[in-house]
Amino acid sequence: MTDKPQTEQFATDLEQRFSDLVQWAVSNWPDRDRPLAPADMDDARRAVHAIVQRLRHPDGEALAPSEGGAQYVNVAPTPWP
Could you give the count of Cα atoms lying within 13 Å of 48 in the half-sphere of its Cβ? Predict the structure, then answer.
């Protein structure tokens, strides 16, 4: 198991490298008629964010809404039909 500072450094590096990759991809996109926008990477950004959150909160603890956690969690059981 790794220590907390090493894990946090990895998570920070992962976010920074992904951001750098997006900037590189947008600026070097070969098809100028249909330019690539940073918003085109939103699905990948969400996936990277999920990985980073799992690194920062490995026990599956609930995140605060300000940290990307759910604003509402439905705990009521589904009614029987």
Answer: 17
Q: With CA atoms as reference, report the closest residue to 18 among 49, 40, 39.
A: 49
Q: Measure the CA–CA gap between 23 and 64, rounded to whole angstroms.
A: 29
Q: Name the token pair of 24.
A: 């590189």
The pLDDT of residue 61: 67
Give the residue carrying structure tokens 């940073």: 38
Contact 26, 36 (CB under 8 A): yes
Using alpha carbons only, what angle is made at residue 22 by residues 71 and 20, rounded to the nearest 5 degrees? Answer: 100
Query: What are the C-alpha distances in Å from 43 to residues 7, 38, 46, 48, 50?
Result: 23, 11, 5, 9, 11
Which pTM does this prediction carry? 0.68
* Mean pLDDT, rounded, for 29-49: 92
Pick the closest to residue 65 from 73, 77, 76 (CA basis). 73
